Amino acid sequence: TILDSIEVAKEYGTRIMVDLLEVSNHERIKELEKLGVDLVSIHIGKDKQREGKFDVKHFSLVENCDFEVTVAGGIDLNTLPDVLAKGPDTLIVGSAITKAKNPAEVAAKMKIMMNDASRN
Predict the structure, then answer these.
(1) Which of 27, 40, 50, 105 is at 20 to 30 A from 93, Cα to Cα?
(2) What is the per-residue pLDDT for 105?
(3) Rounded to whole angstroms, how far apart are CA atoms 49 and 47?
């Protein structure tokens, strides 16, 4: 499926992202790299989010790999600084904004934090 998806993406001049939801084996990551995947998402599911905050240890999966990295799941105002310190290429923030009492305020604070991190 991954190889077929990569081939179709090449035909259309675009890329695919492989979601690493529940992937914890570094060997699997190396397989993805060998297949030619260039974009992955470190994704923490809702069930794992209930167990605790986003843990930046998940970045160890993609250390020394040549991937663009997206991060999703469990990112909020408290976890954002640690996530940003790892330098992901893209962040996907959902319920921290959509379930906030004041979504615009939370989004604005996150934007400021991201802008500050990009300057450093």
Answers:
(1) 27
(2) 97
(3) 5
